[in-house]
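Troubleshooting log. The previous run stalled partway through. Resubmitting the same two chains, unchanged.
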Amino acid sequence: MSLRITGATALRVLRQLRRDPRTIVLLLFVPALLVTLLHELFSDRPLVFQQVGGPVLGLFPFISMFLVTSITMLRERTSGTLERLMTLPLAKLDLLAGYGIAFGLFAAVQASLVSGLSFGLLGLDSARSPVSVVGLAISNALLGMALGLLVSAFARSEFQAVQFMPALIFPQILLCGLFVSRDEMAGWLRAISYALPLTYSYDALARLTAEPALGIRFWADLAVTLGATFVALTLAAATLRRRTG
Amino acid sequence: MTDEWRATRRRVRNDRRVSSIEVSDLRIVRGGYVVLPGLSVSVGAGAVTGLLGPSGSGKTTLIRAIVGVQVVAGGSVTVLGLPAGSPKLRSRVAYVTQAPSVYGDLSVRENLGYFCSILGVPASERIGHAVAAVGLEGYERRVVDSLSGGQRARVSLATALLGDPEVLVLDEPTVGLDPVLRRELWDTFHRVAEAGATLLVSSHVMDEAERCERLLLLREGELLADSTPAELRAQTGADDLDTAFLRLIEAGEGEAA
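Second attempt completed without errors. Output:
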């Protein structure tokens, strides 16, 4: 692995993103719009917004980075650039880390904007500083990115890649505890919930924004989130083959 | 360049024992079909070798094996004395795929700059040379997607020239280019070979075959000819390579029947 190549890859991915201003605007401002909608939806039940607002901030980077990464990586596979890269002195880790840095930075901007809006204008309260919320949002973004890299290996077209979102992301959102708390789920649903990585990152965000003192459960949640990211990245690296049939 | 050195170079080039690429008993199966049943061939150093054959004859598969991106079922491929695909070869062997493999949403300069960073070569100097070699001066700031198909192919080719490779493997690099540009690119290939690099160029255009120092003719994964243009014409009694190849292929079919 080389810092020069990793840095160049991150810069290249950001430059590609820059060429697509419409995607940038959508990525940056749609979350703000959705949080505003959520706030208005619960305008006469402010407690609900206080409860779910914090964790929802972390969902946006998770979803958008999953989509952006799976499609960017799929393009890299179908355009032949991945095959070219695999013949060059670039380590797989350079490529994965380059993607991670680029999308991590982008997720930081995205999460800062939507957090600034929520904490500043919409009156969302947090037990902790918005900076730590943004930090967790970035870890969510990296989880989404790692899953996106992984599924790009199983999609043959961009159309298929997009379909992986309802297949892999929606169940995690439904079961993470946002709509129904895990204690109220049927036993088998709770079991599935505990097997899904988003459950832990959602839980970490909920605890970070609501609990005055962070206990062992928070750190365990964070560890599982980072661990799942690492596992997904390792599996994604295994799908980057130098030799193909 | 001294005369003595030139003479040595020529001797080296004509000495078939000095080869840059050595393929032996190469067997490749793709999607259940045997593409190369057991191919043995060597490509001499410091020359332009043409790889010809009808579509589906295994040209791209052989090329992919040489650059080490093809899963191989048996046999061996050695490039510059190392097994194909060795990490040490990654900065010494350059590969241009049939379809341009560059980032369409980046400019020409951004594309070349990225590949310079990967190769660890000075961008400022190399980009200028590569762009000039493929005749794209003045297009450095253009986004690749806004270029024509032929221009995109040249960006892809320029990328392969950045690292001063010792072996350059090009899969149909001149498809879709006009005759003037084709001739310029072939001049470039010969300049690169003159400087000591080994080039393997696949093509299905016979006037390009005429410009190769050696020719390999593949048909259904078998090597039908490994010769020079002059030898081929003499051997088949044909005036042009088109006819020579047709005769060879027909003779091959006669044997097979």
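Takeaways: Chain B has nine helices and ten strands. The interface with chain A takes residues 30-31, 67-72, 85, 87, 90-91, 93-95, 97, 99-106, 110, 114-115, 117-120, 143, 159 of chain B (CB under 8 Å).
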